[in-house]
């Protein structure tokens, strides 16, 4: 009955229009090859960088925070009152406008900044930002809106955690206030080489530990075992347990807050329908040029090139795993990050995020102790600032697409580490193919099937104990049996592939190379030197500087991977504390553009020539 009703003249016209539109999209997509896309994105990035360079410098707030920390230290010795614009005796002020480049929202925000220098936001602007953008507005207005949203509506972090040389220092955030306008003069604070000095003075001083919360770095272990009970979490049991405690004895303030969150989450999931907790900028635009669905709203600014994503990833991975290790949180690489590792020990160049898995109980602790934490990369290595958010919905199975339970977002790009948990549910059975891998009835009987919220099933025997390894040159953990773990997620054809999407794997370079750079290894000798394979000749790099650059960055990383992991399920014997992490060889994103704009480099390259060790 439905069909004839729709089949009228108007409907015909619409069908024609839609098909035309789809064809145009497909053709356009074909024109914009990977390579030209990279150039286009980079040119746009440079224009944006120049436009906001006057207002925004990521080193500035790091500098201010280290200044504050140093002043705090001195105060202890002299008993002078603390004079700092950024904070007082109990912590620091925070406003997103100081920490993120919000230039994209200037059309709305300039006026607001003038009228409310310390950070307030009038109701109409607030509503403009909060309005959940409808699918058909342009990307530009969506980004403007997101920046206004960040300015006006996003809660401030609870704390800032700063990576120093020896430990993570925790600074509480006491409230919301803008810093930028209150400083004496913009001009004379521009000398940021002072930052290094302050950071060094602070890092070298041993007694700052007395003043702030801190966690010393911990050594990485070869293997970490995890209790099976860490994979069990039942939200209703937790609620009853807390209520019992409350009824019979007392409840701590933090426990009460936790109980409130659980109660709320328990309802939220039932009523959220198809809504995901974490927001992404736009899904429909993916087919055109940029795969932006994976980026985090409201932090997303623009598309990123492969080089940018890989740089952000490398810096972020190091900070995350050091942070997790220092706090005794157990996590490991999953999904596409693990797949990337299995080939050459580095991330897949087209990957849109980092995938981390952890047991549900560990995630619960992450949420309780660190929800709304801004993590700051050690300024010696880069300008990374990452915001950790944990969804309240982790405690309960929701719709399949709401599987990301926590994310660590690079606040200047929206690129993120996506964290999923593994949990055990006695009342849900794994699908048939889960059992297929198990050889005999004993193995089947012993299996403990855990799953993520999007129903990836893993046997705990393949998962734990988790193992130490190097990813992008930095210490991380991976599941016990990588082959099994991956084959539970991906079809076999991905696990030892030569072509995936627009890339081909070149064994001689141990690299994924875009097909439009060259779609197979050239026959000629590819290196500059007969007996030194550390540098490609330009011809060997298919006449692309970008490939030469990437090889220079990754050669040591992938060599180590090959030496240790010729069997990806069983590494050669090594001591993670003897075999140090490799230096971060991907240049910080902001430095990269700064170098180009100030012409300190001849051509664009990501290789961070100066070793950071
Ligand atoms: C910046 O500060 C450093 C260290 O305090 C100093 O050596 C340098 O001369 C200053 N540069 C400028 C341009 O003021
Ligand atoms: C984390 O913080 C956000 C923002 O305040 C809140 O909505 C969410 O429920 C918190 N998550 C957890 C696990 O407490
Ligand atoms: C990993 O799993 C494979 C089967 O996929 C098995 O052959 C191998 O023995 C396992 N390795 C380890 C170290 O458990
Ligand atoms: C993957 O493919 C290569 C070359 O085809 C082969 O040498 C290697 O053994 C394969 N590895 C696995 C794990 O199948």
List keywords for this structure.
613 residues; alpha+beta; 2 domains; eleven-stranded mixed β-sheet; three-stranded antiparallel β-sheet; 21 strands; disordered N terminus; binds 2-acetamido-2-deoxy-beta-D-glucopyranose; membrane; transmembrane; LicD/FKTN/FKRP nucleotidyltransferase domain-containing protein; LicD/FKTN/FKRP_NTP_transf
Secondary structure blueprint with pairings:
Layout: H1 2-6, H2 9-31, H3 34-52, H4 58-78, E1 87-88, E2 91-94, H5 96-99, H6 106-115, H7 123-130, H8 139-152, E3 159-163, E4 167-176, H9 193-204, E5 213-216, E6 223-224, H10 235-248, H11 253-271, H12 306-326, E7 332-333, H13 335-344, E8 353-359, H14 360-370, E9 373-376, E10 385-390, E11 406-410, E12 416-422, H15 432-436, H16 441-446, E13 449-451, E14 457-459, H17 460-463, E15 466-471, E16 474-478, H18 482-487, H19 492-495, E17 499-500, E18 503-506, E19 511-514, E20 527-529, E21 532-536, H20 545-564, H21 589-597
Parallel strand pairs: 2-4, 3-9, 8-12
Antiparallel strand pairs: 1-2, 3-4, 4-5, 6-15, 7-8, 9-10, 10-11, 11-12, 13-14, 15-16, 17-18, 18-19, 20-21
Helix pairs in contact: 3-21, 4-9, 7-8, 10-11
Q: How confident overall, as mean pLDDT?
A: 85
The number of distinct β-strands equals 21
Ligands, ions, cofactors: 2-acetamido-2-deoxy-beta-D-glucopyranose
Q: How helical, in percent, are the residues? A: 25-40%
End-to-end separation in angstroms reads 72 Å
Number of domains: 2
Low-pLDDT runs: 1-7, 181-189, 285-290
Provide the gyration radius in Å: 25 Å
| Major sheet size, sense and barrel closure | 11 strands, mixed
* Category from helices, strands and their pairing: alpha+beta
Q: Identify the overall geometry.
A: globular
Beta-strand content estimate = 15-25%
Number of helices: 21
Domain LicD/FKTN/FKRP nucleotidyltransferase: 324-446
Pfam families: LicD
GO biological process, one term: glycoprotein metabolic process
Organism: Hyphopichia burtonii NRRL Y-1933
């Amino acid at each position: 009955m439905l069909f004839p009703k729709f089949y009228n003249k108007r409907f015909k016209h619409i069908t024609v229009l839609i098909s035309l539109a789809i064809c145009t999209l497909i053709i356009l997509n074909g024109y914009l090859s990977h390579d030209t896309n990279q150039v286009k994105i980079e040119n746009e990035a440079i224009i944006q960088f120049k436009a906001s360079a006057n207002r925004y410098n990521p080193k500035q707030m790091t500098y201010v925070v280290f200044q504050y920390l140093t002043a705090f230290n001195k105060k202890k010795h002299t008993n002078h009152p603390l004079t700092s614009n950024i904070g007082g005796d109990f912590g620091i002020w925070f406003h997103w406008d100081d920490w993120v480049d919000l230039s994209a929202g200037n059309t709305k925000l300039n006026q607001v900044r003038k009228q409310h220098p310390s950070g307030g936001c009038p109701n109409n602007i607030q509503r403009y930002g909060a309005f959940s953008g409808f699918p058909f507005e342009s990307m530009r207005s969506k980004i403007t809106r997101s920046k206004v949203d960040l300015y006006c509506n996003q809660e401030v972090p609870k704390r800032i955690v700063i990576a120093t040389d020896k430990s993570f220092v925790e600074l509480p955030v006491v409230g919301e206030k803008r810093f930028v306008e209150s400083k004496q003069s913009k001009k004379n604070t521009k000398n940021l080489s002072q930052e290094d000095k302050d950071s060094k003075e602070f890092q070298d001083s041993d007694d700052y530990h007395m003043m702030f919360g801190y966690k010393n770095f911990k050594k990485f272990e070869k293997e970490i075992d995890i209790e099976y009970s860490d994979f069990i979490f039942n939200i209703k049991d937790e609620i009853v347990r807390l209520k019992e405690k409350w009824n019979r004895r007392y409840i701590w303030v933090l426990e009460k807050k936790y109980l409130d969150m659980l109660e709320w989450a328990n309802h939220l999931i039932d009523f959220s329908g198809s809504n995901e907790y974490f927001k992404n900028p736009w899904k429909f635009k993916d087919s055109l040029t940029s795969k932006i669905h994976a980026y985090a709203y409201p932090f997303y600014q623009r598309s990123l090139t492969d080089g940018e994503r890989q740089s952000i990833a490398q810096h972020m991975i190091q900070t995350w795993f050091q942070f997790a290790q220092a706090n005794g949180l157990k996590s490991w690489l999953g999904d596409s990050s693990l797949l990337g590792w299995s080939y050459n020990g580095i991330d897949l160049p087209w990957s849109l995020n980092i995938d981390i898995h952890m047991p549900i109980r560990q995630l619960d602790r992450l949420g309780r102790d660190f929800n709304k934490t801004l993590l700051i990369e050690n300024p010696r290595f880069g300008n990374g600032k990452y915001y950790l958010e944990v969804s309240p919905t982790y405690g309960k199975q929701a719709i399949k697409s709401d599987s990301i339970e926590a994310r660590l977002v690079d606040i200047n790009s929206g690129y993120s580490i996506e964290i999923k948990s593994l949990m055990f549910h006695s009342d849900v059975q794994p699908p048939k193919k889960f059992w297929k891998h198990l050889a005999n009835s004993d193995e089947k009987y012993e299996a403990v099937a855990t799953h993520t919220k999007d129903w990836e099933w893993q046997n705990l025997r393949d998962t734990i104990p988790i193992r130490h390894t190097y990813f992008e040159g930095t210490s991380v953990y991976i599941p016990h049996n990588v082959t099994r773990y991956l084959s539970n997620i991906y079809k076999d054809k991905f696990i030892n592939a030569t072509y995936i999407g627009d890339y081909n794997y070149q064994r001689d370079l141990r690299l994924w190379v875009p097909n439009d750079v060259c779609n197979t290894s050239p026959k000629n000798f590819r290196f500059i030197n007969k007996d030194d394979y550390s540098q490609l000749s330009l011809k060997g790099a298919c006449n692309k500087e970008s490939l030469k650059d990437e090889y220079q960055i990754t050669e040591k990383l992938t060599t180590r991977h090959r030496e240790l992991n010729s069997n990806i399920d069983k590494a050669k014997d090594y001591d993670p504390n003897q075999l140090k992490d490799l230096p971060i060889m991907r240049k910080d994103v902001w430095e990269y553009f700064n170098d180009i704009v100030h012409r300190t480099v001849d051509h664009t390259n990501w290789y961070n020539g100066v070793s950071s060790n």
